[in-house]
Design brief:
Length: about 120
């Protein structure tokens, strides 16, 4: 059974940084390598939105409001995907979810990690 476990959330200050990690288990390294990995977020009263994705070729895609501030990366040797968040803003406050979309288009979600940006 595929499991995604996020970590690294918490309280960040405006202009500060946080790094989220998402470790995948129950999946082979090949399956992880072939999957498109992503981060989504959902703020209170708002729909879940795509923040960033990285595919098996290393191509990335970002939400416009995080471009230049957030960086998604993956370590296939560790079955882990990261989201480096710099220059945080209060509007980045949300629950962040890790997503994996397999080569067969099956979707898997983590349980979410809270990120709060406040001084």
């Amino acid at each position: 059974q595929v499991q995604l476990v996020e970590s690294g959330g918490g309280l960040g200050q405006p202009g500060g940084s946080l790094r989220l990690s998402c470790a995948a288990s129950g999946v082979t390294r090949i399956a992880f390598f072939l999957a498109t990995m992503g981060w989504y977020r959902q703020a209170p009263g708002r729909q879940r939105e795509l923040v960033a994705t990285v595919n098996n070729g290393g191509s990335t895609n970002y939400l416009d409001s995080v471009k230049g501030r957030f960086t998604i990366s993956r370590d296939s040797a560790k079955n882990t995907v990261y989201l480096q968040m710099n220059n945080l803003r209060p509007e980045d406050t949300a629950v962040y979810y890790c997503n994996a979309r397999s080569s067969a288009n099956n979707n898997y979600w983590g349980q979410g990690t809270q990120v709060t940006v406040s001084s």
